[in-house]
Amino acid sequence: MKTRITELLGIEHPIVQGGMHYVGFAELAAAVSNAGGLGIVTGLTQRTPELLAQEIARCRAMTDRPIGVNLTFLPIVSTPDYPGYIRAVVEGGVKIVETAGNNPQKWMPLLKEHGIKVIHKCTSVRHALKAQAIGCDAVSVDGFECGGHPGEDDVPNFILLPRAAEELRIPFIASGGMADGRSLVAALALGAEGINMGTRFIATQEAPVHPRIKQAIVEASELDTRLVLRPLRNTERVLNNAAVQRLLEKEKRLGDQIRFEDVIQEVAGVYPRVMQDGELDAGAFSCGMVVGLIHDIPTVRELVERIMAEAEALIRRRLPGLLG
Ligand SMILES: Cc1cc2nc3c(=O)[nH]c(=O)nc-3n(C[C@H](O)[C@H](O)[C@H](O)COP(=O)(O)O)c2cc1C
């Protein structure tokens, strides 16, 4: 399948694995790229630029296909060493960066100077237009159903994607709620040029995540995510668990008075405990509503090939058949 995204990124299938804290290590990114998609190493999971450089080198040793690095620009007090992380990307020969969080404008000249293609992930048409205006090559449009940070507008992909198609010149990728060939064909119909998946890729053999978490994803339904941190205007969609229940209870009790310090116990330092140690209730961790469509733990290659085969069957057989 050829789309503007496969052409732009030099990949075989229009399937991207979004950056995921403590999931997007070299093993998963290389597996996705080797399967013909775009694998993305998550920059900030590596505590220093030196560690990111090592992780990129590890990924490069596992695949000779294009890979990307996610740089999440966080609205936090102690700013990470972004110039250092970008240096690791450049020196590691990585040519694709997925940016997320704050507007990447400040970093665009540096990224562009080194011929890096920038995909900015955002949750609204206005932010997508801004990304286009500052020279991003593509955007990932993250709908309300997505795992992680859906923003504060609450527009689901059935509206957000066609709205993006109405406004954007640059190609865009549908993100949030994508799981299978049906998602891919629907995303293409709505104007996207490919799909970005987070939650679906956690439940794969190669994801370096504790088996207990993969099993929890298989067992959860589409009713099992919750939105947390909304009162702090930092909404996150997470898998419901004991810590999330505690967090929501605090949000209810403290109302407008809530501060980040009140919830730190449920959110800080949670990811290694969840993803690596398999402590399901250690805290709030991102998970999309798409969890209701995940029923198995295939290899990444099986997953990608299944998506492409399902999409092809839909496009070649089911859809033309409707026209009689
Ligand atoms: C466990 C987890 C961690 C994530 N961490 C990040 C991150 O560090 N940076 C980022 O830009 N997006 C992050 N995301 C968002 C994904 O890249 C992707 O946009 C999102 O998962 C898409 O929605 P889906 O889960 O419905 O596929 C994370 C998502 C999950 C599920």
List keywords for this structure.
eight-stranded parallel sheet, two-stranded antiparallel ribbon, 324 residues, alpha/beta, binds flavin mononucleotide, TIM Barrel
Most strands sheet = 8 strands, parallel
Stretches with pLDDT under 50, minimum 5 residues? none
Let me know the number of strands. 10
By oligomeric state, this entry counts as: single chain
Terminal Cα separation, in Å? 24 Å
The share of residues in extended strands comes to 5-15%
- Gyration radius, in Å: 19 Å
Tally of domains: 2
Would you kindly provide a written description of the structure presented here, covering whatever features stand out?
Helices cover 43% and strands 14% of the residues. It is α/β, with parallel strands linked by helices and 324 residues long. β4 (96-101), α5 (108-113) and β5 form a beta-alpha-beta unit. α8 packs across α14. The chain is globular. The protein binds flavin mononucleotide.
Give a brief rundown of this model:
The protein is α/β, with parallel strands linked by helices.
Write the layout of secondary structure elements.
Blueprint: H1 4-9, E1 15-17, H2 26-34, E2 39-42, H3 49-62, E3 67-73, H4 82-91, E4 96-101, H5 108-113, E5 117-122, H6 125-133, E6 138-142, H7 157-167, E7 172-175, H8 181-189, E8 195-197, H9 199-202, H10 211-219, E9 225-228, E10 236-239, H11 242-254, H12 260-267, H13 270-276, H14 300-322
Parallel strand pairs: 1-8, 2-3, 3-4, 4-5, 5-6, 6-7, 7-8
Antiparallel strand pairs: 9-10
Helix pairs in contact: 2-3, 3-4, 8-14
This protein binds flavin mononucleotide.
